[in-house]
Amino acid sequence: MEDKPESPLQPRIQFPGKVLFLTICAAGIGGTFQFGYNLSIINAPTLYIQEFTNETWQARTGRALPDHLVLLVWSLIVSLYPLGGLFGALLAGPMAITLGRKKSLIVNNIFVLVAAVLFGFSCKASSFEMIMLGRLLMGVNAGVSMNIQPMYLGESAPKELRGAVAMTSAIFTALGIVMGQVVGLRELLGGPQAWPLLLASCLVPGVLQLVSLPLLPESPRYLLIDNGDTKACLAALQHFRGTRDVTSEMEEIEKEQASCQGRRARRLWELFQDRTLRRQVISLVVLSSAMELCGNDSVYAYASSVFQEAGIPTEKVQYAIIGTGSCELFTAFISCVVIERVGRRVLLIVGYSLMTCWGTIFTVALSLQSSFPGMPYLAMSCIFAFILSFGIGPAGVTGILATELFDQTARPAAYMVCGILLWTILFLVGLSFPFLVKALSHFLYVPFLFVCVCGAIYAGLFLPETKGKTFLDITEELHRLNLTKRTRVPTWSDPEVIQSTEL
């Protein structure tokens, strides 16, 4: 009997997992890496951009811009990034539905290309407005990619590796932060002449994604459940798994397709109206808010002053700050390795509990730093420990929730909720942080500690464990939990008696 020729839908892949690994890298380098990178590179050229703003205004009007207006322009440059992220989060859901996961990430790089041009020529054009617009566009790019990247990877990974694959979003975020800190050093692109190139360097990861991602498959679940394309789904699965035998996984996706049959993609407000999604929505809102309100971003903002209090020379503080980003990167790798063994809930509980512990010690150290000589060093150690604890659980696990707790029809809208919460809270915390420092002084972290305690309690009591379960199993379990109270209604209640009498 002659062997049948190989079908183009049955690719021969030599190394199992190779395509999935390349997809993780391609999606991450132009996705959450961009978010972390653009979040950190803006710190290095702060003084240079403020001087450029003042010089530009003086060249236009013949008089210098007052200091408070220079600070206002600078605060707008910084805050336009999360504002753009909010717009991007609102775009992400419709883009994921109409274009698909992969094409959305590819199209999203248009914002990067335009922003890089604006950054690169802002100095020659003597226009700080170009910097403001570029930051807004990079925010839109980050808002889109931070929602679609974990959705794309979570839908493409096997259930045994889904948590680890989705955790790579946190790894690329931390990697982007560290790379931004390194590239922003004075010896590299953090000098007074090179800052336009520093801002425009976001073009490099964007180009890398544009070159690599088109060669990789689309999300198999999107191809079958949303598009109804069985052949394309089969080909994508075979590419991702590196084998022709994907029968069991195809059956799982087909069952999920059958359960979603006849249902359109949910709109944002419909998530809050559907009783069968109540527990998922509450978990998403509570834990996503906790991740942004736990104080990790504020620890980064406070790090410079604490390091200076500990006696680190001002010119060396930039190297110590690189250590903080490296801590988060290290723990993101650790979490990626252990998440499929210990589960999501355990990592969240442990992470928030440790953050509560270290945040308490940090508050005590700040309060006593003028009384005991060793307190600044204790505070510095707590900063590293706090960031390590954040990276263990909240940093990565929270981003998996929207993928695992919601089915295919509700997932894009769920990520829109995540994005709106993330960028709104990031904007509000950045805006209010200086006032919190002034009002609470050394007790700045007391509100953040309360959030960490609430996050640990909620994860322990109300969040279901999703480790090793299929999307359909998770959906059915949550459906039972959401309808528990309704099934407890006695069969002899008034409405049923009336209904039976009418019949």
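[next item in queue]
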Amino acid sequence: MAADCEAWLNANPVEAENLSDSVVSEDEGNVGTLGNNKNITNEINGNWLSSSSNSIHEARLKAKAKRRLRKNSSRDSGRGDSLSDNGDLVRGTAVAPTSPKSKLMDRKSRLGKGRGLPKKGGAGGKGVWGRSGEVYGPQQVDEKDPNYDEAQENCVYETVVPPLDERDFEKTVTPIVQEYFEHGDTNEVAELLSELNLGPMRSEVPSLAVSLALEAKSSHRELTSRLLADLCGSVLFRSDMEKSFDKLLRELPELVLDTPGAPRLMGLFIARAVNDQILSKSYIEGYKGRVGCEYTRAALDRATVLLKMTKEGLRVDNQWSAGGGRRPVTQLVKEMNLLLKEYILSGDSKEAERCLRDLEVPHFHHEFVYEAIVMVLESKGEKTFNMLLQLLRSLAVSSIITVEQMRRGYERVYMDIAEINIDVPRAYFLLEQFVEKSFSIGVIDVKLRDLCPWAAKGLSVRETGVSSSWNAKKELF
């Protein structure tokens, strides 16, 4: 550093002379006008200096020269100003800092602006892992690292999922099955179950699904049978299915408390499982002679009867039915006609209500009303007339068929009465009587009654502009 300062003093004699003058004038309090440089360097405050004193004085001069040089270089390096040989300030020429230390400390531009590039090429900043698009290769292991362990060099790391216990199993699998009842996608259930470490609880999956389906709708039972068929082979094994159904048969006395028809439903599940080949054909025969519970015996007998009927052409996969809007309209219409015919033969309105609920098509109940009225118009006796009228009344009172669905069913008959009259000549007269009786027992309101078409011309009272009273309508005949 001293050599640099001495080189600077030799390169700038004017500034060095001024600097030495100012320093001496500060240190010289009682000395008069300077004579020559020799007296200045050898005498301070009237005392002659020895060679050692001269060296101390020179060290002070060099220290002040360094401080002034550092101050000027840090102040003028960003402005681009410099001094001319005459001492005048010259602007516009950038002068690099001459201090080596200032070069190391000068980390940012003094011009007030940069190149507009992101810091560290976009790889800097808080929360940044590296430059975008940069791919890191495998890190080389340093064998000289004190933490280096040769035994860990060939290790394979995998994600370990702990096995589910009984408490966590129900909390985890029950929402999966309940969501499946909503979307009906067996592949999603298989993926979710494969991510779990079921362990010994693997055989509990079918029993949990069946127990939830027993308390649900017929469509959910159909979905459960499909789920068991799709899971067998990919997630579950046939041995898991057999263990699960064995557990369900043992728990039938408890299941009957919540679901009285559990033995009959379990028989259907077993027959469907044998038909789908997820249970062996000898599964039912293995229980012969060793069944003491009456509920278990009823379930196995039901399954045996269904399997025998399957050989005669009965399809077990149609016993649950698809449920809701998943079935075609033609099939729903056919089932409603069968329901009405069975009701006329048996006269059991409660069974008819249960069967209509099991169809799970509340948005399609207007078709049931339409088919019932058409069956009345096509019948020849009063028995069908009175029975179907009472059935519609009980369904309206119990709100199984809503007012809107009842209205749509009657209006559909009003629209098609002209075509029905071609096959049934007395259709207008029978429809008028049925509408009058329906209004008298509270099945329909007066507004819907007045929309009934004329028996003579096929026009409604509203279209003729006549009063809406039923008596005034009769006077027009």
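[queue empty]
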